[in-house]
Amino acid sequence: MMSLMLILITAIYPRTATMRNRNPFGGFSRKLVVAFDVGTTFSGISYSVLDPGHPPKIQGVTRFPAQEQVAGSSKIPTLLYYDTEGTVRAIGAEALSEGIYEQAEDEGWFKVEWFKLHLRPLNDSSGSPITTQLPPLPPGKTVVQVYSDFMAYLLQCVKSYMEQTHPNGVDLWATLSPQAEVVLSHPNGWEGSQQTQMRQAAVIAGLVPDTPAGNERLHFVTEGEASLHYSLENGLPADSLKQGDGVVIVDAGGGTVDVSAYAKSPGTVGDAKVFEEIAPPQCHFHGSVFVSLHARVFISNLLSESEFLDDLDTIVKSFDKTTKLRFRNAGEPQFVKFGSTRDNEPETNIRYGQLKLPGDDVATFFEPSITCIVNAVKEQRRLAHKPFSHVVLVGGFASSDWLYEKVKERLSPEGFNVIRPENHLNKAVADGAMSFYIDHCVRTRVSKFTYGQFSNTKFDPHNAEHQKRFANTYISLSGQRNVKNNFSIILPRNTQVSETKEFAKDFHISKKSIGKLTTANVSVWAYRGEIVTPQWKDVDEDNYTKLCSIEVDLKHLASIADQFKRNGPDGPFYRLHYKLILLFGLSELKAVFSWKENGVEKRSPAKIVYDPDPK
Fold first, then answer.
1. Which residues form the signal peptide (predicted)?
2. Which residue has the higher pLDDT, 2 or 89?
């Protein structure tokens, strides 16, 4: 009876969060905004119905299919089952329902979990070699297809929840959902290529249509930035962010550990919440699933000669659901219950269906994640543009007392105050993503890499670096000797960038015919190495990766070709001087192409094309 009353209360009064001093919505009509947090192990949904003249409220979906009996639950498992035809047969909490496992075994269904990590950048430097042990994707399915199936399910979840919990919910959804704004969160390490694939999945799932207007309604936010927005209302101490002191947000989730540092922007008055990123954000593959993977390796070796080796999956699953969560003391043995009282094997410490593990060994499963967080916070301090002393630990993995205590134990002597919010650690990203859209607290971000373009520069015979590369020179259409593959920096690493700051660089394109100038296609590269001012592609070449291509339609130039005509030793040619203008301070990269016609600057928004593999 009590659980029924809780469900009814939740239905009548959905969970809300209101930021202090949040201004009334200034739009002219009602608007729906939905934030989807697709996590490695669990996912959540937050939303807000924006009413003109009223302060926005963030609400969360707290009831999901096959989970109705769990009042107030704000997350569901990120889990799917596909049948042999590639059709989704169970998803979310339904995939954990009684009888599903047996049916899946009997009918040969394919279980899909942790699929989010298959989207990771192929050039990540997380230092976690165990990423190669991720569960595979279903045969014939891409990560975009799996993402889209799960997003489509989440869309149905928020639709059903709103229809059932809001007055006139059916009409409300029918009226507002066709033009809803959608916010997708992703790890700090995801870049344009990953955003492009998430966008494709969102379109396939029906979150937005594949039109210019539809794409404008889709927004991205890093999990680190979303967690800052959440922490501003849940967990930051009153004395933090004062007197120029910053804060580091550590979002320890199922797959990744995202580390971001922020401080109040200069000139911020009173309680205004305007922040700047003060160090390059980090993303590491040391989330909670990797504790389980380390456990699997250890237990597999332990049972290599045991008759219970066939029970490895069951043992690891039990470790993941119980032992890992309650682990608090390395000095005490830990028990993993997986079988019946008849299951005994003293030589491998299995008695009465329980595997006994030394606490010191269990501690080693957590050690890579703990070390990662401690080193990442120290690295943030080394690179930060401002000092900070507070470290806020959020995310589902942060609920581990062992992780929290060990991180605190190692960082406290360094002068850090490590804290974690008291409740709802698993919904920080979903609520924070909504706050990102509504409150827009972060206005300045920090570049993670050095960005630029490879260009050809005039050969200088007195320059030793040019002489060294004489074999890599050529004669241009204008008759000038140039040396190839000089890296022209547009934005250096660890540079603070405001959302409106433009970074421009002058380049030119020379072609034999005007027809070859009518479509400009240039590439933007990222240098990820340690050279402070990289100059040449052949120096530390492996650390240059192509970020994207910038495409601009310039067909109209054919009608004014004489403006670009030049004479060279081999006859006339055409040269277009242009500026590549990039805005790095937004959650997505924006590009503008600029050139002059009759002495007047012309601009065109450029199309950004990402390769699936940024290499």
1. 1-19
2. 89
